[in-house]
Amino acid sequence: MLWCVLLGAALAPAPAARAQTAQAAESGQTSLKDVSDKIQQQKKKLAQVEKEEAEVISRLHEIEQRLLGENRQYESIAQEINGLQEDIGRARSRVLAAQKESGAQQQVAGKRISALYKYYRRSGLRILLSSQNYSDLLRTEYALGLIVDRDYALLNRSIAALRQQRHYEAELQSRQGRLEESRLQIARTREQIKSTQQERSSHLDEIQQEKSLQLKALRELEEYSRRLQQFIDELPGSKKEYAPSGTPFSQMRARLEFPLKGDIIERFGKQEHPELKTHTYQKGITIKAPAGTPVRAVHDGRVAFADWFKGYGLMIIIDHGEHYYSLSAHASELLKKVNDVVSAGETIAHAGDTNSLKGAGLYFEIRHYGKPQDPLVWLKKGGNR
C-alpha cells in the first residue's frame, strides 16, 4: 500500500512543471488564434481584390454616371448664368429708366415747391382778400385747391418714381449677387468634372495595362450583353409596334446609310482579342469617330429606348417596324426621347465613349425579332467614308 502512494507521488508532475504545461497550452491557443485571424484578414483582402477586379465596368459605369450628373449640373448652372445676365441687362435698363423718370419728377416737384414757397411768402390770405367780390373769391379758392391737389399728386408721383428706382436697384443688386454665387458654383463644378475625368482616365489606363482586368472586363461585358438580349426580347412589350409609312425596313438590305462616318474597328461575329488571345462574339460593329460626331437614324422609326444602359453607356434603340430594331450605344448625348418618331438621316445622338473601353465612337447593332444581324449586310458598301 505504501509503495503505491510513493509511486503515485513520484509520477505526479511538480507544480512548476504543471505551470509550464498550462502556459504552453495557452501559448499554443494564442498562436492558433493569431494564425486564424491572419487567414481571415487575407481572405478579406482577397475578397476585396476580387470584388474590385470583378467590377471593372461597374466602376467605370459609376464614374461616368457621376460625370454625367456633374456635366448636367454644369449645363444647368451655365443656363442659369445666361438667364441672370439677361435679367441683369433688363434690370439695368429699368434702373436707368426709373432714374430718368425720378429725376424728371424731382425737377418738376422742385419747381412747384419753389413756387409754393414764394406763394406762401406773399400770404395766401392776402390773395384771397384781394378778390373783387364773393364769386371772384370762390373762383380763386377753387383754383388754389386745384393747384394744391395737382402739387400733391405730383409729389406722390415723384415719391413713387423714387421708390420704383430703389426697387429696381435692389433687384439689380440681388441678380448680381446670385450671378456671383453661380459663377463660384460653376467654377467648383468645373474642377469636380476635371477630377472625375482624371479618375476615369486613370481607371481606363489601369484596365489597359492589366491583362487580368481586361479579361474580367470582357466577362462583365458578356454579362451585360446577356442583359441587353433579355431587354430587347421584351421589346416592344406592351407598346404597339411601329408601322412604317414608306419603304419597309426589310427592303433596305445594302441600302441603308451609315449612322456616322468613321473607321470600323470591330466587326460582327466571332472575334479574337489580339493580345489576350480570347474569343468574343460581337453582335454589332464599332465605328471609331470623334466625340460629338452626329449619329443619324438609318431608317424611319420610333424611339423605343433612350437612356443609360450599363455596359453600353448612353444608348438609343429605334423600332423600324416588322420587328427590326437598330441600336446605337456609347453616345455622349441623346437628342431624342422614347416615342419620338424619327426620319432616316435625322440626328438622334452624338458619338462618345460612355462605358466604352475603346475610346470615342459608336457601337451599332441591327436586330430582327431580337436576333442580331450583321449591320454591314444592311449598310451601303463604302458608306462610312
Number of domains: 2
What is the CATH architecture assignment of the largest domain?
Orthogonal Bundle
Instruction: Please state roughly what percent of the residues sit in beta strands, choosing from under 5%, 5-15%, 15-25%, 25-35%, 35-45% or over 45%.
Output: 15-25%
Shape: elongated
Q: Identify low-pLDDT runs.
A: 1-12, 45-50
- The helical percent reads 55-70%
- CATH topology-level name of the largest domain: Helix Hairpins
Alpha carbon gap, first and last residue: 113 Å
SSE order, as H and E? HHHHHHEEEEEEEEEEEEH
Mean of all residue-level pLDDT scores: 79
Q: What's the CATH class of the largest domain, please?
A: Mainly Alpha
Work out the oligomeric state of the chains in this entry: single chain
Number of strands: 12
Structural class: alpha+beta
Major beta sheet, specifics? 10 strands, antiparallel
Q: What is the CA-atom radius of gyration, in angstroms? A: 42 Å
Count of helices? 7
Overview of the molecule:
- It is elongated, with a radius of gyration of 42 Å.
- A hairpin with a 3-residue loop joins strand 6 (301-309) and strand 7 (313-321).
- The protein is α+β, with helices and mostly antiparallel strands and 385 residues long.
- The protein has two domains: 57-207, Orthogonal Bundle (Helix Hairpins); 239-378, Glucose Permease (Domain IIA).
- The protein has helices spanning 2-11, 15-54, 56-122, 124-129, 134-209, 211-233, 375-378, and strands at residues 263-266, 269-272, 279-282, 285-288, 294-296, 301-309, 313-321, 324-334, 341-342, 347-351, 361-368, 371-373.
- Helix 3 (56-122) packs antiparallel against helix 5 (134-209) and helix 5 (134-209) packs across helix 6 (211-233).
- Helices cover 59% and strands 17% of the residues.
- The strands form two sheets. Strands 1, 4, 5, 6, 7, 8, 9, 10, 11 and 12 form a ten-stranded antiparallel sheet that branches. Strands 2-3 form a two-stranded antiparallel ribbon.
